[in-house]
Amino acid sequence: MRITKIRHGAAPIASDIRNAYIAFTKMTISVVAVETDIVRDGEPVIGYGFSSNGRYAQPGILTDRFIPRLEEAEPASLLDETGANLDPFAVWRTFMADEKPGGHGDRAIAGGALDMAIWDATAKIAETPLWRLLAERFNNGKSDDKVLVYPGGGYYYPGKGLDQLRDEMRGYRDQGYKVVKMKIGGADLAHDLGRIEAVLDVVGSGDNLAVDANGRFDLETALAYGSAMAPFNLFWYEEPGDPLDYQLNAVLADAYPSALATGENLFSHQDARNLLRYGGLRPDRDWVQVDPALSYGLTEYLKVLDVADQMGWSRRRFIPHGGHQFALNIAAGLQLGGSESYPGVFQPYGGFADDIPIKDGYVTLPDIPGIGMELKPQLFSAMRRTLEITA
């Protein structure tokens, strides 16, 4: 077998929403398709991938470096030992050849989209769901039959008051979610406390609410918010400061009794190691949110989990950021702590298969080869349009 064509494009996920740090009015993502010469039901097997929200599309890196390296490679060098399927690790090494260590930023986003497409194709060729392939290869055949999920929401929006915020959260609860997440840090502390209390009116108790500052705070502000929120006993307090300010996180962890969460803006296993070494995170309560679609893909994420294991952390303390089906498959197949969801924003790329309901805060996974993007028709159609793939 061989890869016959790699396509990519930039897709919009623009919205008027904002968090504490950025607006999403011009946000884009990279979309990738990896076509193979394997034919099923009269059509070639194609793996699909896309980068996660919060970072922009990376057409230059894909066009100038990653894709040409794969096109120039000996086709057999990209295959597993059977010669009948792709070897995602060999593919990853090939597109990352001659890349200098460090600099884990936009390059990691391009790699994440491409790697997702490779794993989707690999699972499709193996005729198995990605979650099952991961369980069999990397988790002694064990997987979770349902995964904890929570909706990323509560964004700041023009004209959005407390009533609209409550309505949004009621909508998530009506969809079957238990834990919900909202943004903080885009207003002052007093205003944000009012917003938190409004959401608690809907969800009942702090263990059903996570808050996210998107790295906005300096240490003084992070501590002030932590002190004010401590009585709520929230599900977690997410990314209070800059993602690389490990000292801020460590000082806050010393003072804040409830759970912290961070890691979505770290893009390598080296970054994750430094977070666990120096960020003060507590393995009995805190959460790590590295997003495989932003951090060179599943291939690198497996290294992140190896680091965690070496440092005595349970995989159950890992909940990938991103709200996409790729992370959901990883969470089920590797038995992580859960997965984010985006049922209301970043459409059509956010959320899961259309016909699988959320029940009591958990979702099951479809038994379809690959990641399962075909079960989200609006997403699948949008990707094929962007990539100019016709039936």
Describe the structure.
The chain is α/β, with parallel strands linked by helices and 391 residues long. The protein folds into 2 domains: 3-127 and 382-387, Enolase-like, N-terminal domain (Enolase-like, domain 1, 2-Layer Sandwich); 137-374, TIM Barrel (Alpha-Beta Barrel). It is built from 12 helices and 11 strands. The two termini are 21 Å apart. The mean pLDDT is 95.
Structure, briefly:
The protein is α/β, with parallel strands linked by helices and 391 residues long. The protein contains twelve helices and eleven strands.
Please name the CATH topology of the largest domain.
TIM Barrel
C-alpha end-to-end distance = 21 Å
For the record, the count of structural domains works out to 2
Shape: globular
Rounded average pLDDT: 95
Question: Topology, please?
Answer:
Elements lengths: L2 E10 L15 E13 L2 E8 L8 H14 L15 H8 L10 H20 L4 H9 L8 E5 L10 H14 L4 E4 L5 H15 L5 E4 L6 H11 L6 E3 L7 H10 L4 E3 L6 H10 L8 E2 L9 H13 L14 H9 L5 E3 L20 E2 L13 H11 L4
Parallel strand pairs: 4-10, 5-6, 6-7, 7-8, 8-9
Antiparallel strand pairs: 1-2, 2-3, 4-11
Structural key phrases:
Enolase-like, domain 1; 12 helices; about 15% strand; globular; 2 domains; about 400 residues; TIM Barrel; 5-stranded parallel beta sheet; alpha/beta; 3-stranded antiparallel beta sheet
